[in-house]
User: Fold this.
Amino acid sequence: MEREEAVISLDLPRAELSEETQAYFEKCQEKLGLVPNVLLAYAFDETKLRCFTELYNDLMLSESDLSKLEREMIAVVVSSANHCHYCLVAHGAAVRALSGDPAFGDTLVANYRAAELSDRHRAMLDYAWSLTVRPAETTAEDQRPLHDAGFSDRAIWDIASVVGFFNMTNRVASATKMRPNREYYGMARTT
Assistant:
């Protein structure tokens, strides 16, 4: 593989993938038009890949008081705080697609504070930012604006879980110089 095509900076050979994982990759190709490079990066160890995808799918796609768009918004704000190139490109595309608003997605990537947000979303993203940049200083008092905005304790758990997941994945993506799929750059650019 040529350097510019590398998914990550580490030389980790792809494992022999099970039929189930190959089918999952085919489903990604069918639904998204690509296999996300993050999945290809984890393909050196199918157990790690499965753990990653199961946790991602649970946090981002399962039943929650948070909409899929809200979870993607959190992913972008955490990734912005961490300057994670991969996640800003990939999840910025998801925000554009789910919101139907390219300007909104790009504004969140650049600076969520400049976006037109509801009180609910402002509280959610302020909390995600705080929990990312100063986790040891975040207290139960920081949850008051979330309760005031109508979030349940379960929704606050989900916010914190999405924040925690993306802080972890941002660090892995940054450490490995993970490259976003080129397709993400052009996704959901027109309204």
About this structure: The chain has ten helices and no strands. The chain has a mean pLDDT of 95.
